[in-house]
Amino acid sequence: MPDGSAVDLRTASRIQLRSSLFPGDLILRSEDADLSTHSGIVSLLDMIVLLPRAYLRASTHGHASFGFVDLDSLLHMESQGRSLQVSATYTSDVIVGDKVQFFRSLLGFLDEHTGQLVDDYPELLDNPNFLEAMFGSPPWTGTKGRVDLDS
Q1: Strands 63-67 and 42-43, sheet pairing
Q2: Helices marked H in 20-136
Q3: pLDDT exceeds cutoff 50 at 18
Q4: Cα–Cα distance between 71 and 145 in angstroms, integer?
Q5: What is the pTM of this model?
Q6: Beta-carbon neighbour count of residue 133 at 10 Å?
Q7: pLDDT given for residue 151 in this prediction
Q8: How far, in Å, CA of 113 to CA of 102, rounded?
Q9: pLDDT given for residue 127 in this prediction
Q10: CA distance 61 to 28
């Protein structure tokens, strides 16, 4: 935990998994734009679980928004044919790229970071909150840290 207290990853709560245990930054950039965060508090679990759902929503419904749990910021995705436009409320930069390339990059990110989490912390596989986040519906609600399915 940020306060230095130990957490049993087998029993960590949903809140602990999302907002306290695996913070970092989103690195998302192209040759012309940079949507990376620099706060150090973006939830890795949110990126692993919700970023693919935002991509799915944008691909199937034309657009999606992804809210960061500990920031008042949104990442927006808009699908336009074979292109994906990604923007954020914290910068004026916009990334426009090939949807297939973004998908491949997303798969690489998921493989690397999910594998790293499980390799480094195998006890997560004993935590029902972690497994539910990975394979079930997101175990959290609210406007931050979720894919906007109603827009």
Answers
A1: unpaired
A2: 44-61, 99-120, 128-135
A3: yes
A4: 9
A5: 0.77
A6: 22
A7: 42
A8: 16
A9: 94
A10: 22
Q: Enter the DSSP assignment of 127.
A: -
pLDDT tens profile 88-142: 998 999 999 999 999 999 999 999 989 999 999 999 999 999 998 888 754 444 4
Structure tokens at 15: 């809140």
- Kindly report the backbone phi and psi dihedral angles of residue 81, in degrees, each rounded to the nearest multiple of 5, phi listed first: 65, -120
Residue type, 39: S
- The rounded distance, in Å, linking the Cα atoms of 76 and 86 is 6
Q: Residue 62: CB partners within 8 Å, gap ≥ 6? A: 78, 79
Q: Give Cβ neighbours of residue 73 (< 8 Å, ≥ 6 apart).
A: 37, 67, 88, 89, 90
CB under 8 Å, gap of 24 or more: what pairs does 56-63 form?
57/147, 57/148, 57/149, 58/84, 59/84, 59/99, 63/151
